[in-house]
Design a protein that fits this description.
alpha/beta; Rossmann fold; seven-stranded parallel beta sheet; two-stranded antiparallel sheet
């Protein structure tokens, strides 16, 4: 059998909520390329869902509890990883959270507590994870985190999560600078809108997906599998000179400026004009 891109490598996956998670697609794509994985989970319901998934696809992969809002739990998590492995080659960080109330209405109404929690879990967790993982990344490696275009431009109703993702991308660049001398690369993967458990909390998700389908150069939405293939590239040696980057996987939507509006031929309501 031919060797895969990740044969012999060991990776840690944070953020599998269910079979529709981007992190789950990344795990399957990494497995196809020959790596070994350890998974994190949070709470009993997620533990049951993840165990069912792993029993079917990754029967020998360990799963370890970790609440990334607590430094002591991140420490214990990597202590458990160290009991199983003497090194880690890559980490996929696919964790984000904001109160549902802070993802609707106007951004100006974001609560202080909601703002802090969104940045803590969605952004600072990358820093905490990288710090505890570093001693195990003895031969260098790769850290990949998931972001979204709402970090760069205003996406209505994305609100505080857009601010958190902007902080995440900046944190990734500073981590890339800090960890580069140790041979550790840090990159962000900016996926287009995808229907996942977490995206259900964003009002108007279907509108976001409709707009991308109408306007993106490829005239469609991205699939979780396409995001996962790009993650494999970033954690593999093919991306050995790539660090501090935000790589868009969104069917080209991020390249656009502005589309005009024209009346719908059926109902007269304004719709995105496909031609100038």
């Amino acid at each position: 059998m031919d060797e895969g891109l990740l044969t012999g490598k060991r990776g840690v996956i944070f953020g599998v909520a269910n079979e529709r998670s981007i992190a789950w697609s990344c795990a399957k794509a990494c497995q196809d390329q020959g790596d070994s994985l350890i998974f994190s989970y949070l709470g009993k319901p997620q533990e049951r869902r993840l165990r069912k998934l792993l029993d079917g696809a990754f029967p020998r992969s360990p799963m370890v509890h970790c609440d990334v809002s607590k430094d002591e739990e991140i420490t214990v998590f990597f202590e458990e990883v160290a009991k199983a492995w003497d090194r880690v080659d890559f980490i996929i960080h696919s964790i984000a959270y904001a109160h549902r109330d802070d993802l609707s209405g106007h951004f100006i109404n974001t609560s202080r507590a909601g703002f802090m929690q969104a940045l803590d879990i969605s952004s600072y967790s990358l820093v905490g994870i990288a710090r505890q993982a570093l001693p195990l990344m003895k031969a260098g490696g790769s850290i990949v985190t998931m972001t979204y275009y709402g970090s760069e431009k205003v996406v209505p109703r994305y609100n505080v999560m857009g601010v958190a993702k902007a902080a995440l991308e900046t944190a990734a660049r500073y981590l890339a600078f800090d960890l580069g001398p140790r041979g550790v690369r840090v990159n962000c993967l900016s996926a287009g809108p995808i229907r996942t458990l977490s995206s259900h909390a964003i009002p108007g998700m279907h509108i976001m997906m409709d707009v991308v389908e109408q306007c993106a150069p490829l005239r469609r939405n991205v699939s979780p599998e396409e995001v996962a293939k790009t993650a494999v590239y970033l954690v593999s040696d093919l991306a050995s000179a790539v660090t501090g980057e935000v790589l868009h996987v969104d069917c080209g939507y991020n390249t656009l400026g502005m589309f005009g509006l024209e009346p719908c031929t059926e109902c007269g309501a304004p719709r995105i004009a496909m031609r100038p």
